């Protein structure tokens, strides 16, 4: 057996184990009627800023907790503490994504019985997080126009498996090279179902994503199939 075959087998084993752990998490979240959002993007796209603007709106209606994923430091968790009572920091210490076992460990510091909504801010990366189910109900991907308009084509899996796509920093379009209409077309080809919304997180222009999450939560309470649970077949192991 050559080294390439060993690497493929190792990757498959890791994803298979993660899939089992994620299924257990999904059952646990459902038992406590907690809706879970997995928020993903590249570094600096604006995930934490989006949450700073959004959490007061969520917390006015729901009991909210946040799991904050980063390689090092608790700076983003500290930014969110003024806006939400429960924040758990996970430092991967070099790992490029969160996985289901890390989320399971973080639940030791959360009381699911006291939450309605759990938002997981994943590690900033457009590659690794796409392959790891965290037991979430929906995946939301944030793309900043300052990253360039080639990202959907270069990292298709991330956008293909999103339940919602947010285009952030659109106020900067006059100052960057970003073909908004071409990106929208590319995203629609990759993912015909996910809503695409423009946001400016720094200005609190949230494009309706808070209302979308609330609708999805209501749908789950009614037993409707949606989001990541319904498109799990798209996952590769």
Q: What key phrases describe this protein's structure?
A:
237 residues, alpha/beta, 7-stranded parallel beta sheet, 9 helices, globular
Topology summary:
Layout: H1 3-31, E1 35-41, H2 47-59, E2 64-70, H3 75-80, E3 86-91, H4 100-106, E4 117-121, E5 138-144, H5 151-154, H6 156-160, E6 164-168, H7 180-190, E7 196-199, H8 209-221, H9 227-230
Parallel strand pairs: 1-4, 1-5, 2-3, 2-4, 5-6, 6-7
Question: How would you portray this structure in words?
Answer:
Helix 1 runs parallel beside helix 4. The protein is an alpha/beta fold and 237 residues long. The protein has nine helices and seven strands. The protein is globular, with a radius of gyration of 17 Å. Strand 6, helix 7 and strand 7 form a beta-alpha-beta unit. A seven-stranded parallel sheet has the order 3-2-4-1-5-6-7, with helices on both faces. Helix content is 39%, strand content 17%. The two termini are 22 Å apart.
């Amino acid at each position: 057996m050559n080294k390439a075959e060993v690497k493929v087998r190792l990757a498959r084993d890791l994803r298979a184990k993660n899939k089992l752990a994620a299924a257990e998490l999904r059952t646990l979240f459902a038992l406590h009627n907690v809706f879970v959002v997995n928020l993903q993007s590249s570094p600096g796209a604006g995930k934490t800023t989006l949450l700073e603007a959004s959490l007061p709106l969520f917390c006015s209606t729901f009991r909210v907790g946040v799991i904050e994923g980063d390689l090092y430091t608790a700076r983003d968790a500290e930014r969110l503490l003024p806006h939400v009572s429960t924040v758990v920091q996970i430092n991967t210490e070099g790992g490029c994504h969160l996985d289901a076992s890390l989320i399971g460990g973080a639940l030791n510091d959360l009381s699911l019985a006291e939450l309605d909504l759990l938002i997981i801010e994943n590690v900033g990366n457009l590659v690794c997080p796409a392959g790891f189910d965290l037991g979430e109900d929906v995946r939301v991907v944030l793309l900043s126009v300052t990253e360039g308009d080639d990202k959907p084509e270069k990292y298709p899996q991330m956008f293909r498996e999103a339940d919602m796509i947010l285009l952030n920093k659109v106020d900067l379009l006059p100052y960057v090279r970003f073909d908004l209409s071409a990106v929208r077309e590319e995203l629609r080809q990759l993912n015909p179902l996910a809503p695409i919304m423009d946001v400016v997180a720094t200005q609190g222009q949230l494009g309706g994503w808070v209302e979308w999450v609330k609708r999805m939560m209501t749908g789950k309470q009614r037993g409707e199939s949606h989001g990541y649970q319904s498109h799990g077949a798209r996952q590769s192991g």
